[in-house]
Amino acid sequence: MITSLPLDEWPATDPLAWLRACELGAGWRRGSAASRWTPITREDLERRYGYFHESLRERGALDFQAGAGRLITPENVDCYIERVHSGWTSVTLAGSVYKLRTIARILAPASDLEWLTGIAKDLDLVAYPLERFDRVVLSEVLITAGLTLVTEAQASRRRRPIWRAGQIRDGLMVAMLAYCPIRLKNFSELELGHSFAREQDRRTIKLPGPNVKNRRADLRLIRERLNPAIGLYLTWARPRLMRHTDEFMIGDEQSKLLTGPLWVGQYGEALSYGSVERRIMETTKSVIGRALSPHDFRRSGAFTAWYRAGAEPHLASGLLQHDEELVDENYNLASSLEVADLFGGWIDNIAGS
């Protein structure tokens, strides 16, 4: 699986041109070409361009002297497609090349990109979604599987603490995402005290509008059923992953455990978008025999809402924060909060919690 080369490792002309293109307007001055897009759209384009840069780096073709966007050539794009086509679906590949064309037009507006437009159109013609019926799992099954992992890790006292901590984290990821099937971008960036916080006696996920794809603020209460697993992760597993094993900590050491990224790796580093996706896919593969992507959790949540609550036909759209007039009419979504709580309540009743 290819990774995305970070912005600060691109040839210098590309990040400079990209950051300039993202500059917002001020007063009478209009914003730059990419400023009208949401932060999530800009970050997605940046990530996709990072895949292209990584393919260049792997084959030693990352020319640090090239002008902005000048590495987007027929030869380099052909090699990029060859590198990723076996690991990506045809839909992902077509979308990525289309977005590569979009960013090329931003970085090098004077370039003739008809050849790239033709490639994008050809890939789009043959793109087709995979059959995913085998990757739809009722949400209560995923929640039970995730919490079972947490319980097993807690009881496996003969295993290394760092292994147990990782399994507790992975199990909690699966269970929480099944209850709250938000987009991977938001899920991977949950931060203690900010987007993941405590409101009185309940934990919440709070996503401000600018950070959400449809620009509509998303607020969800975490179900009480997850409280023991969250408590275990925050007080025992996450400190172990961050290499803090002292029982008593004060000052800066303690604050590090109460702030920062929710999801951390075995050296205390924030798990990236790709790392969170891999952990979820590997974990579901091990517990239910099928590797589910975070987007499959959204699909499974929508199916579960329809299957378990057919009398509430717009619950699925509300749960996933889709922009539909009917959602607003039926749920008055002041509240993804109300919809998510309704969904979680049904799941808890089914599970007998």
UniProtKB/TrEMBL annotation:
Keywords: DNA recombination. InterPro entries: DNA_brk_join_enz, Integrase-like_cat_sf, Integrase_catalytic. The keyword rRNA-binding does not apply. PROSITE patterns: TYR_RECOMBINASE. Residues 142-344 form the Tyr recombinase domain. The lineage of its organism: Bacteria, Pseudomonadati, Pseudomonadota, Alphaproteobacteria, Hyphomicrobiales. Signal peptide: none annotated. This is Site-specific integrase.
